[in-house]
Specification:
The complex is a heterodimer of chains A (about 475) and B (about 350).
Chain A lengths: L5 H16 L5 H20 L3 H20 L3 H38 L17 H16 L9 H9 L12 H8 L7 H34 L6 H32 L17 H7 L2 H15 L6 H19 L5 H23 L13 H15 L2 H5 L3 H13 L12 H13 L14 H18 L12
Chain B lengths: L1 H7 L2 H15 L10 H9 L4 E2 L7 H10 L6 E5 L16 E5 L5 H13 L6 E5 L14 H13 L8 H15 L2 H9 L6 E2 L8 E2 L17 H16 L3 H16 L3 E6 L10 H21 L2 E4 L24 H12 L1
Parallel strand pairs in B: 2-3, 2-4, 4-7, 7-8
Antiparallel strand pairs in B: 1-5, 1-6
Helix pairs in contact in B: 2-8, 3-4, 4-5, 5-6, 9-11
The chains are: A mainly alpha (about 475), B alpha/beta (about 350).
Chain lengths: ~475, ~350
Amino acid sequence: MLFNSLGFIIFLAVVFLLYWFVPFKKLKFQNLFLLVVSYFFYAWWDWRFLFLMFFSSLIDYLIGLSIEAANDSKKRKRLLTASVVVNVGLLCFFKYFNFFVDTFIAAFASVGIDLGSSTLNIILPVGISFYTFQTLSYTIDIYRKEIHATKDVISYLAFVSFFPQLVAGPIERAKSLLPQFQRKRTFDYAFARDGVLQILWGLFKKVAIADVIGQQTEVILAGYEDMSASTLIYGIILIGVQIYADFSSYSDIAIGVGKLFGFRIMRNFDYPFFATNFSDFFRRWHISLYAWFRDYVFFPLGGIRKGGWYLFRNVMIIFALTGLWHGANSAKFLVMGLLYGFFVWANILWQLKTKRRRKEKLGKFPSPRQLMLMVWVFILYSIPDIFFISPDFESSFGYFNRIFEAELWVLPKGLDKLLPVTTILIIDWMGKANEHPLHIGHWPALARWTVYYAMLFFILYLNYGGSPYIYFQF
Amino acid sequence: MKKFLSKIAYLIPFFLILGTINYTLDEQMIFHQEKLEKAVELLQKEDTVYGISHVHKPYLHFQYAKKLKQPKDVIVVGASDCAQMGENIFIGKDVFSHWAPGSGLFFQLAILNEYDKRNMLPKHVVLALRPYIISNEEPRPLSIIAKPYQEMLEKLQLEKPALEFAFIKVKQDKLQELFSVKYLVYNMRSENHDIDTVNSLNERFIMFPDGTVKNNFNPQEKIAKKTVQETIGIYTEAIRTPKSDLILLQHKLIEYLYAKEIKVSFFILPFHPKMMENKTFVEANKKWGNYIQELKKKYHINILGGTNPNDFGLTEEDFLDVSHVKRSSMWKLFSKTDKINN
């Protein structure tokens, strides 16, 4: 059930009305209802993996209680290790098993030993990378005594499976989302209205920006061997914007749906294209994932405190892991992560030397210097995206090779796609002070409704039956 | 909450206006199928008709079959692959091609039943044969098919498969069209398509008296790799997943027509040459070829055309797009058919 499909709109309307109109006297029933609809939503994808999610959630729930009850620090550590092993083990099996087996076979083959092919046909459960990290953060936070383990199994299971952010994030933290399940929720008009507008903006970004640009990027990626260098360079720009529009649209819809049910889900994107340095970019991009690795891996490793080799090591570990988080079916994600890591490390070094501010204040219009920095950051972000979007490592390299071989001074193909690119950049710029750009409550009613209707019109006109989101593969 | 719901209700006028415009203009005659009766009248008077939208209406075919006064020599029943199978191929014969985009076996049964009920079956029936005919119940289920199809099943002494699902889909499809912004834009952009006799063959949406149409749109210069891949995917899947009840249905239909001493032929439009460059598809096509040979052997049936474009000297330039051969190239199929199949 894709967010941009009619099925989801009907599902959402029914669940919304039942949620607010069926008088749940007890919070427990409200949470139970959310749990049931979330499991139904997940089962719509593939019911077989419901048991996996339930198992993974239950293990962490029980381990969380045990850590809380244990006074012995060694025992607490052992329990935390068990949680990490189970979660990472599940993730490794479903996401990385074939990669490890293939690598093993290839290593033996390189010395002349043929082990045959024994790769299993393992299907990746939808959203496993997201909910596994969510449950893992729960046990780690209990271990760190940052939160208390909950005894309310319903609210805990509902927190893990909460349908808006279940399949593609944001990866919520227990300390932020779980307490929201444990207090009574009442309908707030302003909050729900803001949620609807965020959903509208998210749908517009997906259908009118990401999917429209995607028509051209598909053609470029499928036929890069025959394309001019100018088209391939242009393709890199388009791919960069497409990935942002596609992924951030999912987050916007997830957050918007959360608001409809009275939940505040964390931001996942903070206008990353307006970052003026590369470290800042990753504080604005896929915030929930990078913040997760920052808090649970980077800081424990020492962060930037030690400097020198340790700084390089810590940064590269984080970005290698975030690269691998995307998948290990090919080395392409690792290479992408390492490239980003290198850029961030170089940026931190430069910042430490020059003592420049981390985040620049942006005015009504960017200064020429800020504009140049934004373009520079965008270039650094979008080049490794080719590894992200290409089907395999070889075609990523093929794409780059072709840029140096093909003719450069010809007009790129599909220049009409600059329209959605500029549309999103302008709208984002105008709305950058807010969580999403549709904070236009101060506009006259006629102007506001014209905008809403126009967006709805484009969503309906350009939608082709709900194209899948890029991040669903993770 | 009341305030919230009342604001959401602001969307109602948007959809009301949308629905009203779509219903009123209705360029594809989705909600005003009765307008097609004029087309039937003109076609049966052997007139060439202008104004029948590219979404060819099954309604028109059923009306045509119901109102026909004299049996035809040949009728062709199929999907868009039969859009050029008329008197240009069966020279000197009285032919009508009943084709509706994406239609399958249910459509074939239903149309033939309309003729059968009135003892108007022709001497020769040509049935389109594509992999989805035996793998997909009805790619585009339409309410108009349901009754004559079920009647035909009774004649064949078969239990009806789950056609009820089709009714739900039909209603859903109609509702979607009513509130579709795409259909609104189509309606606003289209010229007026009042059905009438043609003045010039340069007009759009022209249907000849034999049911074939004029493809007056530009052929695709280069077929996108993605389109080829998608088409390969659809056909490979269809070949690999035949349904036994559909095969039985097809065999029963052939036997029924034979029992009425009607000559039956199958028409197979070759696949695009780009598809035949794909090894996986070539492998799948072998399986499909075996099925065709089994049919031929069992019923001594006449096969017109074939799956491999190279057998007929068809090149990419002979194709309009990934699935259709140009009208001007159709003769190639029949100049070699006898040599290849007999």
